[in-house]
Amino acid sequence: MIIDLRSDTITQPTPAMREAMFSAPLGDDVLGDDPTVNALEAKAAAMFGMEAALFCASGTMTNQLAIRTHTRPGNDVICDYLSHVYQYEGGGISVNALASVSLAHGERGKLTPDLIREHIYNPNDSHKPVSRLVVLENTVNKGGGCYYTIPEISAIRQLCNEQGLILHLDGARLFNALVETGEPTEAYGKLFNSISICLSKGLGCPVGSLLLGKADFIRQARRFRKLMGGGWRQAGFLAAAGIYALDHHVDRLKQDHSRARKIGAILNQLPEVQEIYPIDTNIVIFRLPETILAADYVTQLDAKGIRGISFGKHLVRFVTHLDFTDEHVEKMASLLTT
Ligand SMILES: *Cc1c(COP(=O)(O)O)cnc(C)c1O
């Protein structure tokens, strides 16, 4: 039994999800007539109170399309230093959007109105780039799966309104936040100009992310998707998995969170674990002493049949997911503590 906690992207489609995929009606999405893609896009947009949606190959693509569509060359994007759009998208902000980045250093990767305000340039100062877009991440991956609440986001929205800034959400794990806060999805459409959500993470789909926003914005993003070679044909196979996941795999995320907390309790008993980040959702990050490199520790874990990833010189990350069961938790406890 391999315990694979490298990421929540490693899940296999369930038999019922495969069934939904195989029986999906298909068309040519580039021509706009794949009925399953259209149904997924309409469903997700309605769910979040947005006008339209665009189904894409990855969360990197949906984030990058959003940034590309919202900005012009020479604009500046404000995000946290820990954010995925900065750390893990190949420098795409500069490549795809020809935009610069201002990095804030929030608590566990979370921005506040004050932090954002510090990074807004004076629009009358011609030395400076034009501050244009703020990107939030919810939950924050590198912050250990911490999340924003709607009041926190509303305060940021208000600042953006005052300053004429656009607000994008990298919601790769947004549903993990929402099952914890109990907040309604529809409220999100009013808070953000655009939202990216991943279907291939906790929701258990093999592939796919959605970009949500106003109809005009999505029309423009669809042009850029084509330009990047991201137009796809009978993508309904993949969209069917997404529809299935939105119907069946959201509420169960709570189980992933409770199993993550159980992992925290196991780690708590290990002498080499110096610190465990608060476990708010499905991500567990812990710190090793200066004498142990995370990369070496991960190799040792691997030999025991436990897979995690090195998340910094002395940090290790585990992510719980659909294919990680109570049985795995028990096995993990016996492997690590005996
Ligand atoms: C996984 C992830 C993405 C998107 O990743 P892809 O692998 O490109 O789908 C975006 N943002 C965050 C925070 C993520 O964890």
From TrEMBL:
Keyword Lyase tagged: yes
SUPFAM superfamilies to which the protein is assigned, alphabetical: PLP-dependent transferases
GO cellular component: cytosol
Domain named Aromatic amino acid beta-eliminating lyase/threonine aldolase: residues: 4-285
Keywords: Lyase, Pyridoxal phosphate
Cofactor(s) recorded in Swiss-Prot or TrEMBL: pyridoxal 5'-phosphate
Modification sites for N6-(pyridoxal phosphate)lysine: K201
InterPro entries: ArAA_b-elim_lyase/Thr_aldolase, Low_specificity_L-TA-like, PyrdxlP-dep_Trfase, PyrdxlP-dep_Trfase_major, PyrdxlP-dep_Trfase_small
Domain of life assignment: Bacteria
Gene Ontology biological process terms in this record: glycine biosynthetic process; L-threonine catabolic process
One GO MF term attached to the UniProt entry: L-allo-threonine aldolase activity
Family as reported in the entry's similarity comment: Belongs to the threonine aldolase family.
The protein's name: Threonine aldolase
